[in-house]
């Protein structure tokens, strides 16, 4: 070597260490969205669990004498037109909402995502054909499917959430396929192939982790849609059947009373809004949390 | 005229940068940078990625991201206000008119949904250089012809993605030169281009500034490119200018060990007995976390205790060095 | 489209570099075309010809350079050699075995012997994987044992700290990422290393470090190197034989020394002239001098 041969003086930085080594002391901190989303969703889950053991009043008990009470000490959020306690019904309704969201998104994600990845990795002609058919299904309204399901199998929370789940499969398939095509075009997939990886390993090791962010965000959006769809179905009478409470039903029943007892509509409406917000934040937060590249920026 | 012939008397400064610092939160990314450019002068700013070259350019253009703050003085000839304290409105009337800039990646710097002819015409009309749509379109076509684009009439109707990298970069140059700027800043303008296309682009930049007597600030990590284009060179490392000088003098008698290291690493024909290239030890620290004192001391073969303090500038602003043990001073003897 | 090969080109003949027995790669009439998206309903867009009629031999222990500009087909050629791209026609023989027409799962033997280093390590290293898993991937894929020990050895060999194994690629500088990519390529002890512009995304000082590392590893492990670059000066430093490509065809080939010091094809001459060097700049070359020989200039100088 020329005049640049000598090693750097002692006590200076080690060139063999990664450049991030200096900031490695910074702990991985939680993104704010994950924290807030987690608290909101957690609160709903806790409420749903508590309602299994305890509610302030019987959510189904009809008391003619207590009809349409305003918020007060006895009935915190008042009573509906049958004299049932709104707080108790909201708590029980949280169960329905969570269940519908989780099951519907679960069905859609667990079927749609692998389908999308598979179609992304299949020969182009096959992938394109299946995706055109998928687009056809995408155009089919979830509500109509649920109404058909209800007509055939009877209206219930179960048929509603299965119908919503099935109707959401194409969205996941589309998102997963477009993500897969992007990942497949990357150099690191080429590198994996040259390392001798087969298609299955590439799908599991490279494609899924790298499209997880897209899928999680889609899941949080689909969750919100599922909650709203259940509310709409119950509203139409095709979802949760009376007297079981669901936030959608409660909103529907309170509609004609908006002028008299606005809070009766506000309470379930706000609950739905908070649940949707919570899951969206949770989705965003999870996506960021799962991306190692965002770590250092948080730590700094 | 050869690129390396030094001018005897620097003409009155077009741009005068004094004590420029760019900071993010707790530490400086650019610190105490001072230099000036005269009309028609071509000055190269070289250094590795992370040395603060591009931030210096962005500070001059007033395009620093919001989370960075700049201090010091940047003065442009015949502009009353210090550019750093000027309002965004004042700065935007200067950009594209008296200040032109060519970025490394023309694909991201051009509007993908607008025909390139219209983009050049827009620059002309915004600054009132021409009035009327037709006059602007004609002038834009002339400018595209001036950067030697074949069939400018047809190219003007194309969108950026329909052009090659070299053609896009020429469009960028046409836009930057459209209003005859006092200062043209080129930030790694040819790094993404093929060598033959690079050669053409360098020629166009050279001709473009010569025809307008514009000052040129040419930023690159490639010493050979800078040496070919520029009369003077500023060597930047760790956010500071560590050496400055006329091209020929700086490259024949480098004083700063960093300059020597860059030159040695650039020369692929100078190898040792085992066929290895000389290198600079270590790498640029991340996030601008350079050592205090002399920023280069943790990679420097001459570094010692004295280097824990910033050496300060020795010599003139456009011909000097910041090093405790510069080559040729006699002080480096026995070291390194 | 491909131009007729000028008489000065020596494409089909192996260069004067030393022969060491049978070639490792024998490429004959290699052609690769890509389908283009249809823009007209009436007729399909004609396919894009990336490379056409390439003949070349790479011998064991050779450091073989491929020089060309973007669109010359040099990366396509490399991908064909790595059997990551199926050729449209022609033959690629690796140690006598034909690669053209084989499916991925029939190429296991090749994956063990031939490994690839890409231009941009940020793109070629999966951002979601830790360094350990990135380097180990070829070992795991080929069911080789002793993974952790080997990863440690490889990190030593490329000059990275062993603690780097638990980190993600984005935490490293460009040069360090390229070291990771090189460690990964060497994991299965290949005999052939294919490098696609491995230093063109790097600063000059880092470039020197990586070129030194490659030279050291090629010597230590007795590798055959195929090195693709747009920069003839880099290829001259690294390689002993070189093929210059333009528009999908080899226009000139020979020893790296001869091609860069006495280029015969006008395109090679333009390429040599266009590279700015410190020496020429100090000798007074200005930007106009880089355009010395235009690619269409057919006159010998």
Mean pLDDT of chain C: 86
Helix/strand/pairing category of chain C? alpha/beta
Specify Rg of chain C, calculated over alpha carbons: 20 Å
CATH topology of chain A: MetI-like fold
Proportion of residues in β-strands of chain C = 15-25%
Quaternary organisation of the protein chains: heterotrimer
Output the strand order for the largest sheet of chain C. 6-7-8-3-9-10
CATH A-level architecture of chain A: Orthogonal Bundle
DSSP summary, beta strand count of chain C: 10
| Total beta strands of chain A | 0
Query: Count of helices of chain C?
Result: 12
Shape of chain C: globular
Helix/strand/pairing class of chain A, anyone?
mainly alpha
Our measurement of the CA-to-CA distance between the termini of chain C, rounded to an integer number of angstroms, reads 27 Å
Tell the overall outline of chain A.
elongated
Percent helix of chain A, as a range, is 55-70%
Number of domains of chain A: 1
Description:
The complex is a heterotrimer of chains A (300), B (336) and C (301). Chain A is mostly helical. Chain A has helices at residues 32-53, 86-121, 124-138, 142-153, 157-184, 187-195, 199-236, 247-255, 262-290, 295-299. Chain A has one domain: MetI-like fold. In chain A, α2 (86-121) packs antiparallel against α3 (124-138), α4 packs across α5 and α8 packs antiparallel against α9. The two termini of chain A are 38 Å apart. Chain B folds into two domains: 13-98 and 181-336, 3-Layer(aba) Sandwich (Rossmann fold), CATH 3.40.50.300; 109-178, no CATH class. Residues 1-5 of chain B have low confidence and may be disordered. By secondary structure, chain B is α/β, with parallel strands linked by helices. The two termini of chain B are 38 Å apart. In chain B, α4 (116-126) packs parallel to α7, α5 (133-146) packs across α7 (165-177) and α7 packs parallel to α8. Chain B has eleven helices and eleven strands. Chain C has a single domain (23-290), classed as P-loop containing nucleotide triphosphate hydrolases (Rossmann fold), CATH 3.40.50.300. Chain C contains twelve helices and ten strands. Chain C has helices spanning 74-81, 108-113, 121-124, 131-141, 147-157, 174-186, 204-220, 232-238, 256-261, 266-274, 278-282, 287-290, and strands at residues 23-34, 48-59, 63-67, 89-94, 97-98, 114-117, 192-196, 224-229, 241-246, 249-255. In chain C, the strands form two sheets. A six-stranded mixed sheet of chain C has the order 6-7-8-3-9-10, with helices on both faces. In chain C, β7 (192-196), α7 (204-220) and β8 (224-229) form a beta-alpha-beta unit.
């Amino acid at each position: 070597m020329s005049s640049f041969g000598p090693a750097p003086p002692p006590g200076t930085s080690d060139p063999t260490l990664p450049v991030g080594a200096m900031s490695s002391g910074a702990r991985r901190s939680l993104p704010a969205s994950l924290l807030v989303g987690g608290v909101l969703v957690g609160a709903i889950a806790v409420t749903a669990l508590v309602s299994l053991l305890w509610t302030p009043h019987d959510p189904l008990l009809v008391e003619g004498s207590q009809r349409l009470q305003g918020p007060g000490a006895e009935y915190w959020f008042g009573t509906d037109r049958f004299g049932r306690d709104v707080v108790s019904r909201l708590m029980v309704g949280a169960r329905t909402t969570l269940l519908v969201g989780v099951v519907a998104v679960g069905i859609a994600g667990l079927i749609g995502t692998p389908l999308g990845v598979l179609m992304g990795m299949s020969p182009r002609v096959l992938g394109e054909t299946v995706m055109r058919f998928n687009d056809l299904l995408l155009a089919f309204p979830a509500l109509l499917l649920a109404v058909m399901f209800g007509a055939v199998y009877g209206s219930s929370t179960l048929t509603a959430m299965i119908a919503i789940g099935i109707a959401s499969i194409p969205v996941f398939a589309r998102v997963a396929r477009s993500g897969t095509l992007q990942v497949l075009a990357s150099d690191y997939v080429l590198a994996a192939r040259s390392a001798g990886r087969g298609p299955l390993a590439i799908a599991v090791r490279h494609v899924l982790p790298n499209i997880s962010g897209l899928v999680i965000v889609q899941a949080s959006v689909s969750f919100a849609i599922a909650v709203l769809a259940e509310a709409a179905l119950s509203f139409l009478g095709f979802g949760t059947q009376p007297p079981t409470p669901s936030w959608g039903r409660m909103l529907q029943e309170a509609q004609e009373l908006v002028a008299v007892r606005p809070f009766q509509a506000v309470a379930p409406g706000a609950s739905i809004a908070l649940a949707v917000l919570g899951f969206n934040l949770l989705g965003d937060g999870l996506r960021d949390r799962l991306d190692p590249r965002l770590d250092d920026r948080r730590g700094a | 005229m050869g690129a390396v012939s030094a001018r005897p008397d620097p003409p009155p400064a077009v741009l005068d940068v004094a004590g420029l610092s760019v900071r993010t939160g707790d530490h400086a990314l650019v610190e105490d940078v001072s230099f000036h450019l005269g009309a028609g002068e071509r000055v190269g700013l070289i250094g590795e990625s992370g040395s603060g070259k591009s931030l210096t350019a962005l500070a001059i253009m007033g395009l620093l991201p919001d989370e960075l703050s700049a201090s010091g003085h940047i003065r442009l000839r015949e502009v009353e206000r210090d550019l750093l304290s000027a309002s965004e409105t004042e700065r935007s009337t200067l950009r594209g008119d008296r200040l032109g800039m060519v970025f490394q990646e023309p694909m991201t710097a051009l509007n993908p949904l607008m025909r390139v002819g219209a983009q050049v015409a827009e620059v002309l009309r915004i600054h009132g250089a021409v009035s009327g749509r037709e006059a602007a379109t004609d002038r834009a076509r002339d400018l595209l012809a001036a950067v030697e684009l074949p069939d400018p009439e047809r190219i003007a109707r194309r969108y950026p993605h329909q052009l090659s990298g070299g053609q896009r970069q020429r469009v960028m140059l046409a836009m930057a030169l459209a209003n005859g700027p006092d200062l043209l800043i080129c930030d790694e303008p040819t790094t993404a281009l093929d060598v033959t296309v690079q050669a053409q682009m360098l020629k166009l930049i050279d001709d473009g500034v010569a025809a307008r007597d514009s000052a040129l600030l040419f930023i690159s990590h490639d010493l050979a490119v800078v040496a070919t284009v520029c009369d003077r060179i500023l060597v930047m490392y760790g956010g500071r200018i560590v050496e400055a000088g006329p091209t020929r003098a700086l490259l024949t008698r480098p004083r700063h060990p960093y300059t020597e290291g860059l030159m040695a690493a650039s020369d692929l024909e100078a190898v040792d007995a085992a066929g290895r290239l000389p290198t600079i030890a270590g790498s640029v620290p991340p996030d601008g976390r350079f050592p205090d004192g002399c920023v280069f001391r943790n990679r420097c073969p001459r570094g010692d205790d004295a280097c824990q303090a910033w050496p300060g500038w020795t010599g003139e602003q456009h011909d000097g060095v910041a090093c405790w043990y510069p080559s040729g001073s006699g002080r480096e003897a026995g070291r390194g | 489209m491909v131009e007729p090969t000028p008489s000065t080109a020596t494409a089909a003949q192996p260069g004067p570099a030393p022969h060491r027995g049978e070639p490792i790669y024998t490429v004959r009439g290699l052609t690769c075309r890509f389908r283009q998206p249809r823009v007209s309903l009436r007729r399909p867009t004609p396919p894009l010809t990336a490379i056409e009629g390439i003949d070349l031999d790479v011998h064991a222990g050779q450091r073989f350079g491929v020089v060309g500009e973007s669109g010359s087909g040099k990366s396509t050629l490399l991908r064909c050699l790595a059997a990551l791209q199926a050729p449209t026609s022609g033959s690629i023989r690796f140690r006598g075995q034909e690669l053209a027409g084989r499916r991925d799962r029939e190429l296991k033997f090749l994956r063990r012997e031939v490994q690839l280093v890409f231009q941009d390590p940020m793109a070629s290293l999966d951002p979601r994987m830790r360094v350990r898993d990135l380097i180990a991937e070829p070992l795991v894929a080929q069911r080789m044992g002793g993974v952790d020990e080997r990863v440690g050895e490889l990190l030593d060999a490329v000059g990275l700290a062993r603690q780097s194994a638990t980190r993600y690629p984005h935490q490293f500088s460009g040069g360090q990422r390229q070291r990771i990519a090189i460690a990964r390529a060497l994991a299965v002890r290949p005999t052939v290393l294919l490098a696609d512009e491995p230093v063109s995304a790097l600063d000059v000082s880092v470039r020197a470090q990586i070129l030194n590392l490659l030279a050291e590893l090629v010597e230590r492990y007795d590798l055959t190197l195929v090195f693709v670059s747009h920069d003839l000066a880099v290829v001259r430093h690294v390689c002993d034989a070189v093929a210059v490509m333009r528009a999908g065809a080899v226009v000139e080939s020979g020893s790296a020394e001869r091609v860069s010091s006495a280029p015969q094809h006008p395109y090679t001459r333009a390429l040599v002239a266009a590279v700015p060097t410190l020496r020429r700049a100090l000798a007074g070359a200005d930007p106009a001098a880089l355009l010395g020989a235009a690619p269409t200039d057919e006159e010998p100088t």
